[in-house]
Structures are given as C-alpha cells and as structure tokens.
C-alpha cells in the first residue's frame, strides 16, 4: 500500500503541492508504523527523506488532534525535534517551516543563541513543534512555564541518533527523556540514524529500558526500519599516479609530488561533476588542502573555473552559512569538509563524494558517500583518494565491507557516573525536592544506566552532597536544592568538556573568520606567526588573552602552520585492521609461492574496488618485506623489531587494541628498565622509544609472560599517572563540582594533587572508566595475549627494521609545513625560539632559578649563587619538576622528573646555550636535543633545520605521546 495513504487529506494535498509524488524507500517502510503511533528507529542514508519520514506522520497527528471532536485543544508543545547540532536546527527549521505554514502548525527553534525575547515568547505562547538540542532540552525542563508546556508532548524525534549514542551527551539525553516522561507521561519516540551495525542496541538507547518493563513492551516497544546503504553505494579506491605536471606543481604548491598528484586528481574529479563534497578526517587537513586548491587555481588560470571552498566547525557561523548557501546555489563546485557535513545539513544535490585518505570506519564511509545521489533513490558514487601502503589497503578493506553491509556496532556510553551526577542535579532542579528512590528509578530507566547499582548511585549522591550541589536528608532519603544547585546546573547543561577557544579576527575585513583551540594559541601562536585557516594564510598581529581573541591579517605564504585541534584521530576498528593483516598474509603467501606482484594485484583488484595500479602500489612494501626475508605481520602473526633506541611491535589489531598493548608494554618494560618509554600508536604497529640496553627481547618477554586475567590491573597502574587520566579527571571533577571544592583557599591545584585527593571517589572511578572506555580494549587485548600464549597468534622477532615496520601511515595527507624549509622559515624559527621563555634551575644548590627569554641566556650558563654549571633548562611553567628535584622523598613520577632534569642539566653543562635552544623547541626533550646537537652541524641554519624537523615529528605524533 502507498505509504502516503496513511496520512490525512490535508497532508496528502500538501505533499502534492510540494512535489512529493512517490515515497522514498524509508518513507514506504516507516510511515505506516509511525502513523500508527508506534516507536520507530529509521536507519537510512542521508538524503533519502528521513526528516519527512518522521515528521509527516507527526504533523498529521498534530493536525488531526486539533480537529478531533470533544477533546480540549492542546496549548503546549506537541512535538520535540532534537538534533545534535545548532546548524541542523537551522536547517530543520528551513525544511519544516513550509509544512507548518501550510498545515497551520507553529514550528519554532530554540538553542543557546535564541534571544531572550524569543524565549519569553515561546514560554508565553508555546509552539506546536519545537526544534532544539539535547543541551537546551535540559534547560527547558526546569523552567516553570516551559515545563508546563512540555506536559502536552506526545512525540519526540531524535535526529542523527547514532551520533549521540556513543557520547556522554547522548547518555545525558536519555535521562533527559525520562525526566520529560515524568512531566508528559509516555510519548512516541522516533529515531533517525545512519546505518549502524547494532540497530537493536541503538533502538533500546532510543526508547529506554524501564526497570519495571525490562521486556520492552508497552511504550518501550519499537520497530526498526532499515534501508541498507551498502547496496546503494559505488565506491572506488584510487592512489593517483604521479604525472609530469605533478612534478612541476610540487614546487608551486610547496609540497611533495605525491600530494600534488592528490590535489590535481581531486580537482579533476570536481571538474567532472556538478557538485562534490570532499571529506577529510581532520580540520588540519581541510585547511591545508583548501590552501593547496587556492594555490593550484593561482598556478593555472584555467583552474579558476572550478571553485572549491572549505567548511568545518571552527569557522565562524557566518562563514559556514555563506559557504553552505553558495554550494547549494551551485556557485561552489567542491566543498572540503569534515565530519559535521556527514550529518543532514541540506546543501542541495550532491552527485559525487571524495574521501581523502582512508575513512577509517565502514560507518563513516557509508555516511559520507551516502550524501551523494540519493535524490530519487539513485546510487551514491564516491572515490577514496589514498596515499599508498596501509592507507590504500585499509580503504580497500573498508570499501569491501561497506558493500556487504558489515558496519561497526554503535559504542554506547554505558554507566558514566559524571552523567549520573549531572542528571541527579537535573531531577532536583526539575522538582525542587525528590525522594532518592524516584531519582534512582528515573536514571536507571534510561538504557545506558540500566545496570547502575544502588550503592554506586548512593556514592554519587554523597559526592554531590559533599560538594554542596544538593542536600541529602538521610533520615527521609530526600534530595533537595542547595545554594549551589542552580549555579552548577546552568553551568553544566552540556556534557561536552569545557575547552577555551580563541576567536580569529581579520583586522583587514573587521570580521571573525573562525576559532583556534587554546592549546594551539598557547603553544604556537604569537605575533608574527603564520598559519592556515579557511584555506588561506594568516599572520598573527596580536593575541588578546583576556578577550580570547587572535588578531590576524591575510598574507600569501605557503609555509604556515596548520591549526592544531585535539582528539581528532578516528580509531580504526579491529575487524578492518585484521582484514589488512589478512591481505598482507595472502600477498606474502602468493609471492613466496612464486607469483608476481602484478598477478597478485590483478587477483586483489578482482575482489576489491580498486584498479590494478593502485593495488600494485599498495602491496609494494609487502613485496619488499618478503624479498628481504622478514616474517610478515598479519592478523595471525605479531612481529617485533628494533634498532638503536627504537623498538616496533607490528600488530594488525586496530587503534584500541594497539593502544592497550602500547600502554601495557610501555609500563612494564619501563618499570623493568627503570626509565620511561615513549610510544606512538597506529592501527598496524606500535613504535617505542626506549632507553639504552632495552631491545626487542624485553617486549617479547612481556607479551609472552603477562597473564591475560591480570591485564586490567596492570593497565590501571599504567594509566594512573598518565596525562590522559589527569586531563580526564579534571573534566570529570568539574562535572561533579569537585574541582571548586578542592581549589578553595588552595590556589593552583595541579593534576597530581587532584589525583591524590580524588582517588577512591566516584570521580576517580569515572575518570578511570572513561579512559578505559574511550581509548582501550581490555577484553580484546586479553584475547590477543591468550592467543600468543596458546600459539594461535605467532610471535616472531625480525633481525632489523623492516619495510612494513617503518612504513607507518602515509604522511601525504597531513600537509604540515614544507619539508625543505627555506631561509625565511628558518629565520622565523630562529626568532621564535630566541624569544621563547625558559626556566633555568640550578641542580647543585637547588635554590637559584630564573625564567627568561632564550636570547638572554649566557653562552655558558652558571648559577650566580654557587657557581655551578649544572643548570637544567625547563619549560617556564614546569613547577612540578622543580618541586620534584627539591623533594627529599620521591614517588615514581617525581623520580622520572628528576632524572629528566639531570639529563637536561648535563646537556647544558656540555653544550651551553645551544642545548637551551634545542630544548626550547616544541616537543624537543633532552634525548632529542642530544640527537640534534650530536649531528655536529657547522652551519647554524642546518642546526635550526634539524630543530624544525623534530618539531614537525612532534606535531605529527603529539596526540600519541604519554
């Protein structure tokens, strides 16, 4: 039966006016159950009409209820439409406003930027449909007028539910919906999502579990409607060949030939299509790729006919909206974008998608390529442009898995205690006074908290009481508002951690162009520095710390830094990495049996969506590896190799398992060696920087002897003093209101002291749980260790560093500063370091210290108090190392800091100011400084080139260093 017949006459007439003659597949399948009032999870690619699928039956129900005889008219809000992004709010308003006007249904939008006047108007005269965000729902649940308006809610639509399911803000939303249920009673829940590998899990996330209804009946029942995305996609993987033009372009674009070939190829794809989205994995790459397109257009006037712009979340709203509108109008041919454009923002018809570099996940590829060609149920076409080696093999595995619908399951954020704390305060804000049992049941009716124990809940409540965020009356078991409840609640509407951002303000045009992360500003930004944003080059003229503003002017300079955003590495799942391992094994076996690389590439090209040349380039390192006689690391073989002070463990198990192995090995090998071990993780190998005398044998011994059942205990010890745990602990403590409590009257409260103060509390338990949940895969890694013990996973040691062990992920997509820095760049580096500040500290008397600019340091520093030349050069803010050196009794962390200070002092004693300069560079510690100095460069420019190379290496690996 035609799905539209389930809708009323007014809506069907409006459909005809709007040009909806035939329902799309999601509409055919989902409108009947939604129109019948049942909960539904609709899984389908973007662009297949999911919004109308959900909202046409909802609008029809609102329209019908208004005309129903005998029923009093509803005066409150009938439907909530919740989206994860404000940009989606704006987009949904544009799309639903016409339907509202046609049917006489008022539609409004509300989020953090809604004016006070508009909020007051909505409270006095509520709309029928309110479009909002998870955070704003938290706020309107507590206002007396809006809370009364919410009593009439009968429908809630959650858009992009997969985006929320794996995040704490999604867990917060599920409890918010249970709080809403206490106000309105049961309501219909409709979830709209991209294809996921665990629809049942996402459905339960949507409707809640209900502790009194664990069997999912009544209003907890739901139907899943799924439109398979894999059968509707046509994806090709391409590693472009380098042409003569690319050799010339490399110089013009200030990059290498490989990157030039990528830029040229993508530009040609854009020219061959009407409207192309170009997805990249990081904002850094978006900015740098955009700058290369601009340079390409300037190099060849014929290329100016193709317009390519940049779009990502750190650009200002004005810039983003302008680019979206121009792209939709056809004035922009290609849009370089990040994950925000995966979601349903309407940018008109897209007929092709380029993914630059491996998309890392099947779900991400389907979501991105799914943006193309879905008007009138067309097949979505996409091209993955790769940089060879692991990048290509990974993209091939993902494209094959996408075609077969092998999508990763949603990683729902279960049991986050800081979310519980936040929502218990929310329940108290809602009701003023509530029995603890009712608050507990409200929280545990939400699916992510169904297993929360009463003792754990009680611990959270006592922590909140101790932090004065609410009062616990232990005699009556009631929770009441305290003096701190209101302030805490409205300061913590979001579960997204607070991180400062700086506005980037163009002094020439007198307008904001975007934002920069605080860490980038602190570490990199200063007057005279250059960087890339919005695909253009900018020079900083001033940094206003109080206003959190960076003032810039535009320049033409290809050598700028790319702004650094934290936490953007998309983890490669284990099944994808293991398939890359299986491909390696197949190639190695075929080559060992006498087959040629060309024949092997031909066979793989028949089974994977890539041409023979692309596959042949990808398997080149495997062929080199086999020719050298090394054991090939596969999904069933781990290999260890080393040289000098580097050891690599080659393991094709994906980011999370490899991160877990890395932390285990770094902790246990470092403990046995009595020195810290640095680590760099990717999905196919872990590289360690080790102290002298430590080789592959130490790592093999740990892998062979570690008891899998004790893995979690080992890891807790390993992460206990890590920066990752301290950083997470500070964020979690803020959500519990604990940081304010511990800082009162104590001034600065560092990570070590916070760790000591909170250990054993729910705050510490939650921080530890989050580190384990986000970064680690304990159970899977225990299985790997068990496999090594049983022999199902081979463990072999290579004689030397190998082609696969040193390959790493292709750097072609990173777009940092040019490799061959010119004289201007070297001069900029020299001047920047000379004006950086360092802390000089005497290790002999331990009394004298001085913070000064590098250029003011003597050629041979010595202590003016005792005359010693044992002067350590430290970061200017490094209070903890100074305290560690002065301490009479030291813990392990203080011992490490003291040892590092002595290494720094030895360098300064031997090499003087040159050592101070090297260690003042970004990410250059005593070990790397010694390596730079020992190259004995006579030319000072070459010395600074070495410093710059090390800074680049640090920028590339920064997020992996513990």
Automatic annotation (TrEMBL):
One of its GO terms (biological process) is DNA repair. GO terms for molecular function: ATP binding; ATP hydrolysis activity; catalytic activity, acting on DNA; DNA binding; helicase activity. Residues 888-902 have a biased composition (Basic and acidic residues). Residues 265-418 form the Helicase C-terminal domain. It comes from the Archaea. InterPro entries: ATP-dep_Helicase, DEAD/DEAH_box_helicase_dom, Helicase_ATP-bd, Helicase_C-like, Lhr-like, Lhr-like_DEAD/DEAH_assoc, Lhr_WH_dom, P-loop_NTPase. Signal peptide: none annotated. Residues 31-201 form the Helicase ATP-binding domain. Keywords: ATP-binding, DNA damage, DNA repair, DNA-binding, Helicase, Hydrolase, Isomerase, Nucleotide-binding. Residues 888-907 are annotated as: Disordered. It holds the Pfam family Helicase_C. The keyword Cell division does not apply. PANTHER family: ATP-DEPENDENT HELICASE LHR-RELATED (PTHR47962:SF5), ATP-DEPENDENT HELICASE LHR-RELATED-RELATED (PTHR47962). Belongs to the Lhr helicase family. Lhr-Core subfamily. This is Helicase.
């Amino acid at each position: 039966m035609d799905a539209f017949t389930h809708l009323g006459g007014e809506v069907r007439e409006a459909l005809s006016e709007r040009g909806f003659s035939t329902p799309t597949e999601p509409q055919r399948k989902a409108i009947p159950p939604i129109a019948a009032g049942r909960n539904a999870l609709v899984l389908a690619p973007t662009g297949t009409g999911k919004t109308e699928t959900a909202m046409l039956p909802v609008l029809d129900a609102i329209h019908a209820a208004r005309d129903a005889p005998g029923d009093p008219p509803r005066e409150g809000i009938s439907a909530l439409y919740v989206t994860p992004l404000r940009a989606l709010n704006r987009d949904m308003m544009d799309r639903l406003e016409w339907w509202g006007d046609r049917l006489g249904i008022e539609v409004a939008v509300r989020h953090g930027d809604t004016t006070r006047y508009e909020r007051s108007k909505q409270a006095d005269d509520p709309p029928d449909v309110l479009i909002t965000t998870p955070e704003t729902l938290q706020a309107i649940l507590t206002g007396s007028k809006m809370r009364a308006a919410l009593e009439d809610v009968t429908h809630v639509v959650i858009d992009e539910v997969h985006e929320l399911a794996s995040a704490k803000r999604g867990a917060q939303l599920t409890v918010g919906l249970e709080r809403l249920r206490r106000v309105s009673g049961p309501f219909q829940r409709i979830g709209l999502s991209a294809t996921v590998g665990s629809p049942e899990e996402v459905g339960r996330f949507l409707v809640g579990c209900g502790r009194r209804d664990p069997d999912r009946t009544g209003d907890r029942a739901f139907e899943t409607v799924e439109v398979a995305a894999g059968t509707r996609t046509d994806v090709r993987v391409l590693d472009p060949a380098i042409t003569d033009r690319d050799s010339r372009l490399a110089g013009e674009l200030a990059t290498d030939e490989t990157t030039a070939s990528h830029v040229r190829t993508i530009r040609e794809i854009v020219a061959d299509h009407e409207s192309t989205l170009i997805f990249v994995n990081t904002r850094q790459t978006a900015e740098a790729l955009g700058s290369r397109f601009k340079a390409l257009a300037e190099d060849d006037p014929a290329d100016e006919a193709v317009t390519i712009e940049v779009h990502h979340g750190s650009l200002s709203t004005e810039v983003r909206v302008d680019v979206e509108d121009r792209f939709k109008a056809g004035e922009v041919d290609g849009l370089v974008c990040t994950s925000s454009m995966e979601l349903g923002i309407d940018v008109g018809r897209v007929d092709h998608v380029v993914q630059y570099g491996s998309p890392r996940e099947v779900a991400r590829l389907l979501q991105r390529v799914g943006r193309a060609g879905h008007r009138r149920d067309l097949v979505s076409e996409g091209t993955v442009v790769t940089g060879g080696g692991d990048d290509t093999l990974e993209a091939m595995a993902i494209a094959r898995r996408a075609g077969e619908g092998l999508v990763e399951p949603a990683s729902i954020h279960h049991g986050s205690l800081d979310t519980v704390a936040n929502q218990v305060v929310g329940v108290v804000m809602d009701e003023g006074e509530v029995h603890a049992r009712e608050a507990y049941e409200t929280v545990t009716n939400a699916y992510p908290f169904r297993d929360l124990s009463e003792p754990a809940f009680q611990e959270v409540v006592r922590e909140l009481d101790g932090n004065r965020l609410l009062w616990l009356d232990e005699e009556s078991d009631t929770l009441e508002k305290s003096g701190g409840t209101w302030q805490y609640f409205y300061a913590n509407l979001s579960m997204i951690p607070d991180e400062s951002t700086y506005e980037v303000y163009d002094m020439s045009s007198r307008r904001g162009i975007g934002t920069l992360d605080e860490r980038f500003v602190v570490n990199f930004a200063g007057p005279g520095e250059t960087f890339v944003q919005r695909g253009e080059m900018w020079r900083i003229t001033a940094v206003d710390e109080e206003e959190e503003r960076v003032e810039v002017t535009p320049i033409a300079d290809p050598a700028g830094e790319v702004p650094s955003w934290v936490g953007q590495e998309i983890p490669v799942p284990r099944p994808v990495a293991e398939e890359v391992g299986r491909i390696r094994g197949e190639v190695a076996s075929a080559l060992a049996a006498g087959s040629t690389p060309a024949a092997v590439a031909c066979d793989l090209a028949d089974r994977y969506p890539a041409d023979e040349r692309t596959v042949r380039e990808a398997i080149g390192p495997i062929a080199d590896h086999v020719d050298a006689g090394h054991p090939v690391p596969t999904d069933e073989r781990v290999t260890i190799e080393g040289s000098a002070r580097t050891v690599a463990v080659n393991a094709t198990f994906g980011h999370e398992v490899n991160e877990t192995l890395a932390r285990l090995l770094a902790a246990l090998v470092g403990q046995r060696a009595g020195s810290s071990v640095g680590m760099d993780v990717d999905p196919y190998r872990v590289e360690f920087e080790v102290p002298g005398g430590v080789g592959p044998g130490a790592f093999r011994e740990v892998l062979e002897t570690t008891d899998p059942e004790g893995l979690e205990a080992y890891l807790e010890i390993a992460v206990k003093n890590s920066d990752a745990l301290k950083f997470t602990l500070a964020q979690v403590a803020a959500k519990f209101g604990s940081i304010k409590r511990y800082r009162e009257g104590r001034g600065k409260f560092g990570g070590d002291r916070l760790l000591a103060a909170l250990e054993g509390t729910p705050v510490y338990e939650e921080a530890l749980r989050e580190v384990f949940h986000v970064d680690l895969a304990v159970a899977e890694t225990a299985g790997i260790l068990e496999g090594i013990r049983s022999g199902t996973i081979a463990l072999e040691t290579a004689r030397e560093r190998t082609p696969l062990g040193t390959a790493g992920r292709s750097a072609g997509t990173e777009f940092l500063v040019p490799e061959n820095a010119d004289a201007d760049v070297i001069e900029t580096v020299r001047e920047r370091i000379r004006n950086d500040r360092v802390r000089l500290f005497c290790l002999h008397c331990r009394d004298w210290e001085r913070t000064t600019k590098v250029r003011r340091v003597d050629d041979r520093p010595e202590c003016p108090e005792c005359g010693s030349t044992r002067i350590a050069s430290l970061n200017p803010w490094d209070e903890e190392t100074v305290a560690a050196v002065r301490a009479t009794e030291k813990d392990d962390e203080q011992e490490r800091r003291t040892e590092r200070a002595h290494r720094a002092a030895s360098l300064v004693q031997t090499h003087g100011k040159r050592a101070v300069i090297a260690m003042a560079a970004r990410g250059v510690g005593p070990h790397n400084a010694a390596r730079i100095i020992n190259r004995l460069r006579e030319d000072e420019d070459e010395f600074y080139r070495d410093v710059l190379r090390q800074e680049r290496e640090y920028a590339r690996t920064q997020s992996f260093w513990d």
